[in-house]
């Protein structure tokens, strides 16, 4: 009963967050009040569906945030990730970063269906992803922020862009930073946004290399804390079991907090792409230390970096379209 009451209290806080704040400082033609007149219930509808989904499965919060990230790094934040293969569309869902791991599409479908009933042809799928990411943060104890809105949906997808632009778990620090830089994001954004790994899970196939063959010499990653590594080997075999899941944050996998950064300092980051933030670069190491010491500082920067990421090359004005179904372009 206490858990239900707590969940309802969080939902009530979400529902009173203002949707409209028309401030040009959010960048470009996007602003949080975009739907204030055309679909004033948009924010409440998204919040309600996301809250129900997260209540059923806490992991869904991380999955929805990941969809937003993987969408924005390919052609900008345009909902291209949501398109299924059809005709000339080759879906990004089949790319290496997304195949057998991207999830939450049915939640987006449910949100879109309710929005189409309330205000047909008005709210884009790209904006749904952006709002759902913010709500996922709040529902798991993380920060909130005003979401600039007004994105339109692409009429294309890019499988090659998905394969090439999204950082991989075993990329080097410099490769990851370069991929962020190409999106207009800097090292501060990289470290702050990586903090989203304070919730969710990763598949064995994404961290097996660290356990058994990090550098191609048959030896494990020596930066991995030994007892942590031994525990992971019990769950993730040398071969097979690719889909076996391990938590990204061993301290509080269902709570959005700063324990992820504390884990990195202890050499207990699950993915290579996590641990290199502490082991491979002086500036990122100092940011890890700062966020480990001050959760408020992390929350503030995370919100700022999420807004910045959400502003990557949006389609606005007459560009793109407002899809009726997030999985296919309008005929």
Automatic annotation (TrEMBL):
Keyword Calcium: yes
Residues annotated as binding Ca(2+) 1: 71, 74, 76, 78, 80, 92
Cofactor section: heme b; Ca(2+)
Organism in which the protein naturally occurs: Raphanus sativus (Radish)
One of the GO BP terms on file: hydrogen peroxide catabolic process
Domain (Plant heme peroxidase family profile) ranges: 29-330
Pfam families, sorted: peroxidase
EC number: 1.11.1.7
Binding-site positions, Ca(2+) 2: 198, 249, 257
Active-site positions on this chain: 70 (proton acceptor)
InterPro entries per UniProt: Haem_peroxidase, Haem_peroxidase_sf, Peroxidase_pln, Peroxidases_AS, Peroxidases_heam-ligand_BS, Secretory_peroxidase
Segments crossing the lipid bilayer: none
An example Gene Ontology CC term for this record: extracellular region
Cell location: Secreted
Broad class of enzyme this protein falls into: oxidoreductase
Disulfide bonds: 39-119, 72-77, 125-326, 204-236
Similarity section: Belongs to the peroxidase family. Ascorbate peroxidase subfamily.
Protein name as it appears in the record: Peroxidase
Site (Transition state stabilizer): 66
Function as written in the Swiss-Prot or TrEMBL entry: Removal of H(2)O(2), oxidation of toxic reductants, biosynthesis and degradation of lignin, suberization, auxin catabolism, response to environmental stresses such as wounding, pathogen attack and oxidative stress. These functions might be dependent on each isozyme/isoform in each plant tissue.
Listed GO MF terms: heme binding; lactoperoxidase activity; metal ion binding
Binding site for substrate: 167
Major subcellular site: secreted
């Amino acid at each position: 009963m206490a858990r239900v009451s707590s969940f309802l209290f969080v939902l009530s806080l979400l529902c009173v967050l203002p949707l409209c704040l028309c401030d040009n400082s959010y960048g470009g033609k996007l602003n949080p009040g975009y739907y204030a007149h055309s679909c004033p219930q948009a924010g409440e509808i998204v919040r309600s569906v996301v809250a129900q989904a997260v209540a059923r499965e806490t992991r869904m919060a991380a999955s929805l945030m990941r969809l937003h990230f993987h969408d924005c790094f390919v052609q900008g934040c345009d909902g291209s990730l949501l398109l299924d293969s059809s005709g000339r569309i080759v879906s990004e869902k089949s790319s290496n970063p997304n195949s057998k791991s991207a999830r939450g599409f049915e939640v987006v479908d449910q949100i879109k269906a309710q929005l189409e009933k309330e205000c047909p042809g008005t709210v884009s799928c790209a904006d749904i992803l952006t709002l759902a990411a913010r709500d996922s943060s709040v529902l798991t104890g993380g920060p909130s922020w005003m979401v600039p809105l007004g994105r339109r949906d692409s009429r294309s997808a890019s499988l090659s862009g998905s394969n090439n632009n999204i950082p991989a778990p075993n990329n080097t620090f410099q490769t990851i930073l370069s991929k962020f830089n190409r999106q207009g994001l800097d090292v501060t954004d990289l470290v702050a946004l990586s903090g989203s790994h304070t919730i969710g899970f990763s598949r064995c196939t994404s961290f097996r290399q660290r356990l058994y063959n990090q550098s191609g010499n048959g030896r494990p990653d020596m930066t991995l804390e030994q007892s942590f590594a031994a525990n992971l080997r019990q769950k993730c075999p040398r071969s097979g079991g690719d889909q076996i899941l391990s938590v990204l944050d061993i301290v509080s996998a269902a709570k959005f907090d700063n324990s992820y950064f504390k884990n990195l300092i202890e050499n207990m980051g699950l993915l290579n792409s996590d641990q290199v933030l502490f082991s491979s670069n002086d500036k990122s190491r100092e940011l890890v230390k700062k966020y480990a010491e001050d959760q408020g500082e992390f929350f503030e920067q995370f919100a700022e970096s999420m807004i910045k990421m959400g502003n990557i090359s949006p389609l606005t004005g007459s560009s793109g379209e407002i899809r009726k179904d997030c999985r296919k372009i309008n005929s």
